[in-house]
Amino acid sequence: MRIVRAVITVLLLSLTANAQRSVQQSVVQMLTEMAENYRQKVDDRTSMKVQINIQPTAEIWYVIVEPNRKVTVSQDSNGPAQFIFTTTESTLRKIYRGEMTALTAAAQAKSSDPTPLKLEFGPGVAFDHATRIKLFDFLQHFFNRTSPEKVLFGERHSRVVHGAHAVPLYYHPGLRSAWYMIKKGERLNGPGDVNPFPQAFIFISGEGFARIGGKTIKVKGGEAYYIPPNSEHYVWNSKKRPLVLIFLAWGDGA
């Protein structure tokens, strides 16, 4: 009797696992659905090719965007890609489900930092204004299937970047925005961190300390601070309650 029960249990577990696998979209199904959605949003003059490498299976897919909103997913390259992303099926599935944005998966403080969604540029591609527009558009709109587009933020949707839990919100040449949560013992940025464009810390909740332009101040939710260009700026938290803020940057170079 115990043997029969054991066999039945194994069969049920196998059927459940197979059922779960069958309802999960494959990599090409996820990319194809994203492409169909992107077709409704992309500018009809846009032209680019994006390569997506899936590890560890070594799958290679190409998203080809052509004028008149033609967006296709193929394994045929027909020339080099402008942008090359390397990720795993697990990360792609999180992005597909909206659990993490592509911007969050690709975010890094330094170019050498490992990321779940690694970005490389194709041969001869310069990181100029036009390239940045295409890249930010693809990252934010190809991978986001919601309409109107929705971004979930909070600790479970974040990654630690620049020393704190981050969810990049909206990026465009001349504009950066992100949600940050600084837990006890964490510090966003560090001594010597400066940028040549204006920025702001908009504190939503919690309490902590900030160093802005040579001054150390206590900060709390309900306060916003302007950071002039080339001013040192970092924030830290020594309390149990997280310090939550919105980060903004704008102007040339942002």
Automatic annotation (TrEMBL):
Domain Cupin type-2 positions: 199-247
UniProt cross-references to InterPro entries, sorted A to Z: Cupin_2, RmlC-like_jellyroll, RmlC_Cupin_sf, SCP2_sterol-bd_dom_sf
Keyword rRNA-binding: no
Domain of life: Bacteria
Annotated keywords: Signal
Gene3D superfamilies, per the entry: Jelly Rolls (2.60.120.10), SCP2 sterol-binding domain (3.30.1050.10)
Leader sequence segment: 1-19
Listed Pfam families: Cupin_2 (PF07883)
Keyword Ubl conjugation applies: no
Name the record gives this protein: SCP-2 sterol transfer family protein,cupin domain-containing protein
Organism: Pyrinomonas methylaliphatogenes
Species lineage: Bacteria, Pseudomonadati, Acidobacteriota, Blastocatellia, Blastocatellales
